[in-house]
Specification:
Shape: globular
CATH architecture: 4-Layer Sandwich
Strand content: 25-35%
Order of helices and strands: EHEHEHEEHEEEEE
CATH superfamily: Metallo-dependent phosphatases
Structural class: alpha/beta
Number of domains: 1
Cofactor: a divalent metal cation
InterPro entries: Calcineurin-like_PHP_lpxH (IPR024654), Metallo-depent_PP-like (IPR029052), Phosphodiesterase_MJ0936/Vps29 (IPR000979)
Distance between the termini: 30 Å
Protein name: Phosphoesterase
Number of strands: 10
Radius of gyration: 14 Å
Enzyme class: hydrolase
Largest sheet: 5 strands, mixed
Strand order of the largest sheet: 3-2-1-9-10
GO molecular function: hydrolase activity; metal ion binding
CATH class: Alpha Beta
Number of helices: 4
Helix content: 10-25%
Amino acid sequence: MNLLLISDTHVPKRARDLPAPVWAEVDRADVVVHAGDWVDEETLDRLEARAKRLIAVYGNNDGPALRRRLPEVARATLDGVRLAVVHETGPAQGRESRCSRAFPDTDVLVFGHSHIPWDTTTETGLRLLNPGSPTDRRRQPHHTYMTARITDHTLTSVELHPLPHP
């Protein structure tokens, strides 16, 4: 199972559209995961129409229309891997222990908000993934997104992809 992980797209405020390589990954992915801060409903509509399956949440920059359509926390079991998605996890310091307590029955937590890519595993085995942002790099060297695979009930091949500067 191929996964595409994105967050903090901020369309149309930070970009007019998702970058072409991200749309290409949408077409390849079995599941697209979006960890919030869409800003516009059109991107949600387009991803819902194009993705084979979309698991998504709203973020702090998403207004009432997006909040009516999306949950604050999304959960799914994908080939035995228990996935949760949330926009904010709080400060980096203490994130692992805080998330382990908040998501005890989760194998992988995808989050956003900071625009800073993150990939760690907690003492309890919870994998924390932040794909950064494909449209708003802030102080990061690149715009980014992540891909991953689930093989034999295990998350594998997690890869951070930098995008060329527009």
